[in-house]
Design brief:
The complex is a heterodimer. By secondary structure, chain A is an all-alpha fold. Helix content of chain A is 78%, strand content 0%. In chain A, helix 5 packs across helix 8 (170-200) and helix 10 packs parallel to helix 11. Chain A is flat. By secondary structure, chain B is an all-alpha fold. In chain B, helix 4 packs antiparallel against helix 5 (123-137), helix 4 runs antiparallel to helix 9 (198-235) and helix 9 packs parallel to helix 10 (246-253). Chain B has helices at residues 3-6, 19-27, 31-49, 85-121, 123-137, 141-152, 156-183, 186-193, 198-235, 246-253, 262-289. Classes of the chains: A mainly alpha, B mainly alpha. The interface between A and B is large, with 49 and 44 residues.
């Protein structure tokens, strides 16, 4: 098991190298000179040359690439083209916000989603099943930014229960988490429902019922263990979607997270910041996927890692 | 009026049911899918009709009446610049639907082509495309789209291309898997024995049989693409003002949430309806195209 984790972690290195390479060269393809963009109106040839030297843009592309990779190895992602601050410092400030939001949302989505899916499957075509399925359809169809604004309108402006925007307390977290978790929650509930229904159709469930095991115990002891394995895959998949949704949610609620940083950087052509944040998110995403694969082993003794 | 009732005798010969008839027979019994189809046709109709109705003027500003709520003259009210929201929603349908369709087509054609080649011939092409897909999937979905917008520059066209490219791996994977499962089937071997070329086998035997999962993916994908493109518009990375794209309209209205909430209500409701339509139809298509995949 430990060897498997180690081997997979080593396997991540080429993937992340590819991600770093793609982000580096992709942005180099961009037409236009970031130095010109930074200087704006009052551009002079001398100032431009000086700025290009400071940013390292006067070096040959391969030298820039080598310095970029070398920097990553030392934990240095360069300086923001726009604010001249260290990218690592910007990331250290904003990443915890995004991570809290994303992890909070995926936990809520998983717990509520698995619960709702199980309730729905326990009595297919019952009243609760229809309520859950209607909820799922609504949640996968509503744009996250719109849902966020509707929540702000009702719970902050009309009812005054929760803050409109900002960061700092648990109360600030409630509406963003509700808005962001809705979409993954629906996906998880949908998968749980069909997976539990599949498991319920097995012979061992009928056997358990026939020997008089109460319904709740059948569900807990026999059905859920088998039904949850595909659900874990969906949770990991949804987490990738959620990381993107977090960018939008942060904009809606004015949260000082990575999403805001990325969007501002894209609009300002701040390559160093874009590269750093994309790399960080891809690394986190890769680690989550690794964690999910490991979680399989815990849930499913049939899977053996060698 | 049923035609058979007017005939003096029952026709004895039945034509064999085509795959299309089989599909439609199942699809039309699925009321949820029909509702979805109705919503989509309704919004397509809106998109087609908007330019033909002279009363719909998305650019006309009436600053004196700006932010005024829905009324008889302006059923959806006016926005922060005094523009009629009904006109803007109607004209915006073209941008929102069009962009999602183009994005899906980009992903569909590129992904299916890659999947066919990789699955059928294997070897180096397969190896390379699998690696590329892996790297693309290492980026969280919307983040890859944002990165591509960063290269192309913000705008509706860039957002559309970005979302399309981001979706290529999904189609490539599904197609490749379908091709792998069909490549050694008996009818493919039979076609080869009678001298069919690789291209002929791909076009005539493999692609039609691989189409069902791809079509389902595309329909549900249209809904997801609507959301992504609107999301990029909301972030300011997609459509730019004064385009009446629905995501951008919500973004522009959010500063007036307190005093004029109607500005965000209508574009948001239409976005949700459109996505709901694609989702309902996608589920119906899946059930009708492949009963084995039916959800209970």
């Amino acid at each position: 098991m430990l060897r498997y984790v180690a081997r997979r972690a080593v396997g991540l290195i080429p993937l992340l190298l590819a991600v770093a390479t793609v982000t580096f060269f992709a942005l180099e393809l961009t037409p236009g000179d970031p130095a010109v963009l930074i200087m704006g109106q009052d551009v002079t040839p001398e100032g431009l040359a000086e700025l290009r030297r400071q940013l390292g843009l006067d070096r040959p592309l391969l030298v820039q690439y080598a310095r970029y990779l070398g920097g990553i190895a030392r934990g240095d992602l360069g300086r923001s083209f726009r604010t001249r601050t260290l990218v690592t410092e910007d990331l250290a400030r904003t990443f915890p916000v995004t991570l809290t939001l994303a992890v909070g949302s995926i936990v809520v989505a998983s717990v509520v989603g698995v619960g709702a899916g199980t309730i729905s499957a326990a009595r297919p075509h019952g009243a609760l099943d229809y309520v859950v399925r209607a909820g799922i359809l609504t949640a996968v169809s509503a744009p996250v930014f719109w849902m966020g604004l509707v929540l702000i309108y009702w719970f902050s402006i009309r009812l005054g229960w929760l803050p409109v925007s900002g960061w700092g307390s648990l109360r600030h977290l409630v509406l963003p988490v509700v808005a962001l978790s809705a979409f993954p929650l629906a996906g998880i509930a949908r998968m749980t429902r069909s997976s539990v229904l599949d498991a319920l159709a097995h012979d061992y469930v009928r056997t358990a019922r026939a020997k008089g095991v109460p319904g709740g115990a059948v569900l807990r002891r026999h059905v859920m263990k088998n039904a949850l394995i595909p659900v874990v895959t969906v949770i990991a998949l949804q987490f990738g979607i959620l990381l993107g949704g977090a960018v939008i949610t942060e904009t809606v609620f004015a949260l000082p997270g990575l999403g805001q940083l990325v969007v501002t950087a894209v609009l300002a052509r701040d390559y160093a910041t874009i590269r750093g944040s994309v790399l960080l998110v891809a690394v986190s995403f890769a680690l989550i996927n690794l964690a999910v694969d490991v979680a399989y082993a815990a849930l499913d003794p049939r899977i053996r890692y060698s | 009026m049923n035609a058979s009732q007017t005939l003096p005798f029952q026709m004895a010969v039945r034509r064999p049911r085509t795959p299309w008839a089989l599909f439609w027979g199942r699809f039309r019994k699925d009321w949820a899918a029909l509702v979805g189809l109705g919503i989509i046709f309704g919004i397509l109709g809106l998109a087609a009709a908007a330019p033909l109705v002279p009363a719909l003027k998305p650019e006309l500003q009436d600053l004196a009446l700006r932010r005024s709520p829905p009324s008889a003259g302006h059923p959806f009210g006016l926005d922060h610049l005094g523009r009629d929201i009904l006109s803007r929603v109607a004209h915006g349908a073209r941008f929102t639907v069009g962009a999602a369709v183009v994005a899906t087509l980009i992903a569909l054609f590129a992904g299916v082509a890659i999947g066919l080649v990789a699955g059928f011939w294997g070897g180096l092409v397969d190896e390379v495309s699998t690696r590329v897909v892996e790297v693309m999937l290492a980026f969280p979905y919307l983040l890859l789209a944002i990165l591509i917008v960063a290269i192309l520059g913000p705008g509706l066209a860039s957002a559309t291309v970005a979302v399309g490219i981001t979706k290529i791996p999904h189609y490539a994977r599904v197609t490749r898997a379908a091709v792998l499962s069909l490549r050694h089937s008996d009818y493919v071997d039979a076609a080869r024995v009678i001298g069919a070329t690789d291209a002929g086998i791909l076009a005539r035997h493999i692609l039609p049989n691989a189409m069902a999962p791809i079509l389902v993916l595309a329909t549900v994908g249209l809904g997801a693409d609507v959301l992504s493109i609107a999301g990029l518009g909301f972030l300011g990375l997609g459509a730019q003002p004064p385009t009446p794209e629905w995501g951008l309209m919500v973004s522009e209205g959010r500063s007036y949430l307190f005093e004029a909430s109607h500005i965000i209500v209508f574009p948001g409701v239409f976005l949700m309806l459109l996505v709901l339509g694609f989702n309902l139809m996608g589920d119906g298509l899946r059930d009708a195209l492949d009963p084995r995949l039916r959800r209970r």
